[in-house]
Amino acid sequence: MAAGAVVVDIRPVDQRMRDGSLPGAVVVDRNVLEWRLDPTCPHRLPLATGADVRYVLVCNEGYGSSLAAATLRELGLRRATDLVGGYQAWLALAAGTRPGAAQVRI
Predict the structure, then answer these.
(1) Could you read off the pLDDT of 2-61 as tens digits, one per residue?
(2) How far apart are CA 56 and CA 27, in angstroms?
(3) Which of 31, 37, 73, 78 is the most exposed, having the fewest neighbouring CB atoms within 10 Å of its CB?
(4) Rhodanese domain location, by residue (predicted)?
(5) What is the extent of the structural domain holding 61?
(6) pTM listed for this prediction
C-alpha cells in the first residue's frame, strides 16, 4: 500500500463479516464517507485533517471505491484514490494466487 496513506474500507458490514477485515484500515460506511473525510465537515473523523491526506479506498472488487474516490476528489481531496480490484484482489495477492493483483491507482 502507498506509504503514509490512510486505507479506508468502505465495504458493507455484511461483506466485512463474511470476508474478513483489512488490517490497519479505517472502516467508514460508504453512505457517510464524504461527511467523515471532508476536513470542513463538523462530523469528520479526527484523521480528516486536510486536502493533502492520501486516502486509498477499498471496496469488494474495486468498482464502488473508484466512484467514491472520484467523489472525494470533487470535494477537493485531490490525493484520494482506490485499490484496483478491491478487497478480493488484496486477498488474492495475500494468498499468492494472483501476484501483483492489487495495485493502488495513481
Answers:
(1) 568 999 999 999 999 999 999 999 999 999 999 999 999 999 999 999 999 999 999 999
(2) 12
(3) 31
(4) 1-99
(5) 6-104
(6) 0.87
